[in-house]
Amino acid sequence: QVQLVESGGGLVQAGGSLRLSCAASGRTFNRHAMGWFRQSPRKEREFVSAINHSGGTYYSDSVKGRFTISRDNAKNMMYLQMNSLGPEDTAVYYCAVITEPPEYSGTYVPSRLWNEYDYWGQGTQVTVSS
Asked: Rounded to 5 degrees, what angle do the CA atoms 120, 115, 25 make?
């Protein structure tokens, strides 16, 4: 059974930093892309960042240059380093996994649509005070 567990959320002042972690278990993820999404009240879940199995990284325009995604395949871990946080980053952050097509031979670009992801964590709250 696949399980994703996020950690590292909390309360931080504007301009501060947080590092989120996602621990994946239940199978190997070396042919899966992993991503971070976030959702704040009365808003749809939105794409934040994703990383494919070979380490290619992708970001939403709102976090590009401030957030850095990474993964450690040996440990089945994914991270999101968040710098220069602002109140607009306040949300529940979710870790997600999407299966890369096995027949895909090029560079896999992970989907930015939350409903195309196969597995989800329970989320971790990030609150940025102004």
From this structure: 20
Q: Tell me the helix, strand and coil percentages in the chain, rounded to 5.
A: 5, 50, 45
- Dump the DSSP string for 100-125: PPTT--S-----S-GGG-SEE---EE
Q: How confident is the model over 12-56, as pLDDT tens digits?
A: 999 999 999 999 999 888 789 999 999 998 899 999 999 999 899
Categorize the per-residue pLDDT at 118 as very low, low, confident or very high, splitting at 50, 70 and 90: very high
User: Which among 4, 41, 31 has a CA at the least distance from the CA of 20?
Assistant: 4
Cβ neighbours for 90, distance < 8 A, ≥ 6 positions apart: 40, 126, 127, 128
Measured CA to CA, the distance from residue 45 to residue 96 in angstroms comes to 12
CA distance 69 to 21: 10
**Nearest C-alpha neighbor of 54 from the set 33, 35, 38:** 33
Taken as a whole, the chain contains a residue count of: 130
